[in-house]
Structure of UDP-glucose 4-epimerase:
Amino acid sequence: MIAVKRLDATEAALAVIDQLLTEHGDLMFYQAGGCCEGTQPQCFEKGGFFPRTNDACIGTIRGFEFWVDRDLFEYWQYSHFTLDVLEGFGPGGFSLETPLGKTFKVHYRLFTEDELKNLEPVQRNE
């Protein structure tokens, strides 16, 4: 049986990721649990942000890790994430898509009971 992915991305998000990849090289994503960047997903050059101990990598997009704050993951661990992109500026402005006049956003949906039985494992930062 194929494991159920925790993460997907829209075509619009993938197009922006491809543009950022061309300009910045390898990328990474981090979704924080609040503070100055809110809970918007942030995109950085790979190695430009260091996940905290016990943060969760829920999957990859185009091969780039998507990390979630450990406390936020505890709240959203039963949800599927779909990365999207919108026109406008997010709350933090640290993310690489900001100069493009765009902001990444995550849409959530709860996993079904069947999906919960076969979820991909998460990687924890140790």
